[in-house]
Structures are given as C-alpha cells and as structure tokens.
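User: I'm designing a mutation panel for YdhG-like domain-containing protein and want to avoid disrupting the core. Could you give me a predicted structure to guide residue selection? Please restate the sequence first so the numbering is unambiguous.

Assistant: Good idea. Sequence first, for numbering, then the predicted structure tokens:
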Amino acid sequence: MSNPSKIEAYFKTEHPFKDAILTLRSIVNRTALEETFKWSAPVYTLDGKNVAGLGRFKHHFGVWFFNGSLINDKYERLHNAQEGKTKALRQLRYTDVSEIKEDELLYYLNEAISNQKKGLEVKAAKPSKNIALPVELTQAFSEDQNLEKAFKALTPGRQKEYAEHIASAKQEKTRISRLEKSTPLILDGKGLHDKYKNC
C-alpha cells in the first residue's frame, strides 16, 4: 500500500476513538505540516523532519511531539509517556473527543513547527561504549569466533539490548536459553527488537 492508501485505511478503521482521531487530523492538517505514514500511524513532517504524530491506544488517544520536551508547555498538558526512556518525546493525551481544544492543540503544533524551523532538536545520548557482557555470552564468544565478530558488528544499542536481555534472567538455564534464541539473530546482524520496529 502506498502512503496515501495506508493513511486513509488508518482513518477508516473502526475503533472507539475514530471520530476523535479524525478531529485531531482536521486540526493538524490546518498547519504547514505534511501528512505521512510511519510506524503504522500518521506522522506529520516539516521539510522531511518528524514533528508530530497521532496515536490511539486502548484507553486514550493523542498527539505525539518528537521534540516535545523543547515546547513551552503553557497549558501544562504534555506527558512523557515513556518516563526515563525518552528525553524528547511528549504527548497530548485525551480520553474523549470533548477534551480536544482546538486553540490549545494549535498552540502546541505551532510551537513544535517554530522549533523545527529554528532547527532545535533534542540530541540522543551516545550509548556507553563499555557494555557489561554476561558470562554466558563471553563463553559463547570463546567457542564461536563468528558469533563474537557478528556481535561486535552490531550497533552499541543492539549490543546493549542483547547483553541486558541475557543478563536480566535470574536463572542460569534461562540465560542460556535466551542466548540460544538470540544467537541466530546476532549472526544475522539483527537487533533483538527489530521485528517490532518495522514501519
């Protein structure tokens, strides 16, 4: 499906917040942002840069701001929905269409657009180069040089994901099981969570 057809399919899907999401869309589309489709949801860009996105969940819906932490939160409405995991993302969260205030939403959208035009963005923290590897993984490297080579070819973020995934198991047999399941992915150059990141 092309982007336009994916976008239309998203907005035609029946769910409890369908009308509310369409209301948000109509307001966002009054701005200079361009509507695209990424990560299975509508994303709004300016000069190819992600500025905002719409999201619907089981109990709420809302508007994401990719550099929302830089927005002056005049109405004190922005949420960090992934506390501790993101420095930049913020969300306007609603549970009913009646909560949507057009002037309020336009304020946040225009703030985000203004920041984007100024080139303001939150820089991602560089991952630490020192990743603590679990014993099971280092032992596997000593037995399989191809595995070690493939692991070192991964990005630091992916290396950390595997190391923490294996090390976080309390029992040795679980750590070994996780290592065995991770090995083909590592050899394939894939991250632990790549299948969830596909657009």
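For picking mutation sites, this is relevant: DSSP finds eight helices and six strands in the chain. The radius of gyration is 21 Å.
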